[in-house]
Design brief:
Blueprint (H helix, E strand, L loop, with lengths): L1 H24 L20 H11 L33 H10 L1 E6 L3 H14 L4 E6 L2 H13 L7 E3 L2 H9 L21 E2 L2 E14 L24 E4 L5 H14 L1 H13 L3 E3 L2 H9 L5 E5 L3 H6 L4 E5 L3 E10 L6 H22 L2 E2 L10 H4 L7 E3 L5 H18 L1
Parallel strand pairs: 1-2, 1-3, 6-7, 6-8, 10-12
Antiparallel strand pairs: 3-10, 4-5, 5-8, 5-9, 5-10, 5-11
Helix pairs in contact: 2-9, 3-11, 4-11, 5-6, 7-8, 8-13
Length: 407
């Protein structure tokens, strides 16, 4: 019986990896080495390639002209960490400084994670951080491959929940998040086996204001199936990007089969461009290669900081993925890992709300990005569901079959 269970588990894992590797074979998923965020995503269009290469490397690309009325990022100076009165155990700080460094694997955009990293370094000098950033598919494949080869780079893993569930199941994350000092108001609902849930990214419709007047912009998911968006859409790949797949599966559950598949036929009939994840989809809209996309809220702030001509619309259901943080099961620097996790749990929210990601609670003493302040009051957060692997694979096959029919 145990052998049967082990075989079943291995089959599911192999299917999950094959599902992710398909994207790599198609030229969607790039790789990079530990210690630097150098993920490369292969795309055909030159303008997207130029901008996207700098974005994923954490560099600041040249600004593009903006249009009157385009939303701009907040201009408030970031608060100093001294404004937060958090007591960190001195014994933990001393032990972390003796270790001297830590390595983080994350799905956060590189330029945004850099803000978090910079503030941690300012608060705890003498502890260096190296990080690698990739899509959740990249992260899962990379960690599983490294662990099976006896290579243990990361101390901390900070990724979208869909992939963290797989990593936890495969034993490359600690069985439970490490014990750290938590804020007094930190809900027990946020303490998951896969980590402390501290950040939420949600789906939005982003559009290029030079190509789409605000009064003509799509206002709902249903609008994307209208014929006027034919050859003007760019979307995260519905067959390889796990958070998007789970989002669509939840929409199907809420709408019902008939409405959902009618909508899907309309969207596919519009001949969208496909990108590996929400980030390159957003970049394609920024540079004008498409007019409209579905993307994550975390891609709004970088676009505005580059003065790109974009605006956005919130989706209903208002949902997305949580980003838990935890320790790798074979972390080489456990004390530095615990200190960084403690810092993110206590003070990361101030960074998240500044860059447009939704923290668990909003602190009015810190800057809040328009991506958050503009959320309509009647929208309520609905957690993205994580469906069983078998159900996800059946959904992907149904989408592929429909793609082939429409093609």
């Amino acid at each position: 019986m145990n052998n049967s269970k082990g075989l079943a588990t291995n089959v599911v894992v192999v299917l999950w990896i094959v599902f992710l590797v398909i994207g790599a074979v198609a030229g969607y998923i790039g790789g990079s080495s530990a210690g630097a965020s150098t993920t490369t995503i292969t795309v055909r269009e030159t303008r997207t390639t130029t901008l996207l290469t700098t974005v994923v490397a954490g560099q600041q690309p040249p600004a593009t002209p903006t249009t009157p009325g385009t939303q701009q990022p907040p201009t408030q100076a970031p608060p100093t960490q001294d404004q937060q009165r958090v007591v960190y155990p001195q014994s933990l700080i001393d032990a972390a400084r003796r270790e001297g460094r830590l390595v983080v694997y994350t799905t956060m955009p590189a330029d945004q994670f850099d803000k978090l990293m910079t503030r941690f370094r300012q608060k705890f000098p003498g502890i260096e951080i190296e990080f690698w950033r990739g899509t959740i598919g990249d992260l899962v494949v990379k960690m599983l491959s490294e662990y099976r080869g006896g290579v243990y780079y990361p101390d901390v893993v900070f990724g979208i929940d869909e992939g963290m569930t797989v990593l936890h199941r495969e034993g490359v994350l600690t069985p439970r998040p490490p014990e750290v000092v938590l804020p007094e108001n930190f809900s027990s609902d946020l303490i998951l086996d896969i980590g402390y849930s501290v950040r939420r990214v949600f789906f939005v419709i982003m559009y290029n204001t030079q190509l789409v007047p605000s009064d003509r912009a799509p206002r709902s998911l249903e609008d994307l199936a209208r014929p006027e968006w034919r050859n003007r859409l760019v979307l995260p790949d519905f067959t390889i990007h796990a958070p998007t797949i789970f989002y669509l599966m939840m929409v199907r559950e809420m709408w019902g089969e008939r409405k959902f598949w009618d909508w899907m036929r309309g969207v596919l009939a519009n001949r969208p461009l496909w990108r590996a994840s929400p980030l390159p989809a957003a970049v394609a809209v920024e540079v004008g290669e498409a007019a409209v996309c579905i993307t994550f809220s975390s891609n709004i702030a970088p676009a505005l900081s580059r003065r790109s001509p974009v605006d956005w619309v919130y989706l209903n259901p208002f949902t997305g993925s949580t980003t838990p943080i935890t320790m790798a099961s074979k972390a080489l620097r456990p004390n530095a890992a615990k200190l960084f996790i403690t810092y993110v749990v206590h003070e990361g929210g101030s960074v998240f709300q500044e860059i447009g990601d939704l923290p668990i609670t909003i602190d009015p003493n810190f800057p809040v990005h328009p991506a958050i302040t503009r959320i309509p009051p009647d929208l309520k957060w609905v957690p993205n569901k994580i469906y069983p692997d078998e159900e996800r694979l059946r959904f992907v096959e149904a989408v592929r079959t429909l793609m082939a029919e429409i093609r």
